[in-house]
């Protein structure tokens, strides 16, 4: 399961902090303008990085590519198909966990590589209800499933999330300490392999 770090404020310090963590990817939000983005790029040279949030335009995406961007994360509304209809960048669709059956059925043909489900309101140990919010989507959408959370899950909860079809976790350095992120990375690396016969899309 991948660890993806989001940096939504104090971007320079955030980039410095994650350089030693070496997550699978970094998502930036709230960066004002391409010049500011290019200043941050040098601190992210060793890890794939991308943009999350904000409206996308063809000129904007061209600028992101020029700056070295690897990933675009965007919502359903107001995202032009022409902007994302290319496999040069990884494309992540940000999806509300309350998406209805009609929307879920329509996602598979879309030109996206992964779906990000934001459940930042989840706190403490994961309940069956929390898990259902994930599985109702992962069981219907044939894309990589990323989950945005506000605190690191316990090691045993990580196994449950993986077996529910989760491929990656997204956490913001503004709400989760670097120590917690470092421990989470260790827990992910030490997670036991799936048991034979258990349904798991990552097996």
Summarize this entry quickly.
35% of the residues lie in helices and 19% in strands. By secondary structure, it is an alpha/beta fold.
Outline type? globular
Q: Would you list the SSEs in sequence order as H and E?
A: EHEHEHEHEHEHEHEH
- CATH topology value: TIM Barrel
* Structural class label: alpha/beta
Please identify, by name, the CATH architecture.
Alpha-Beta Barrel
**CATH classification, class level:** Alpha Beta
Low-confidence stretches: none
Terminal CA distance reads 11 Å
Number of spatially distinct domains:
1
| CATH evolutionary superfamily | Aldolase class I
Main sheet summary: 8 strands, parallel, barrel
Give the helix level as a range of percent.
Answer: 25-40%
Molecular structure report:
With 203 residues, this protein is α/β, with parallel strands linked by helices. The protein has a single domain, classed as Alpha-Beta Barrel (TIM Barrel). Helix content is 35%, strand content 19%. The chain is built from eight helices and eight strands, in the order βαβαβαβαβαβαβαβα. The chain has an eight-stranded parallel barrel. α2 (34-41) packs parallel to α3 (58-67). The termini are close together. 33% of the residues are buried. The model has no long low-confidence stretch (mean pLDDT 89).
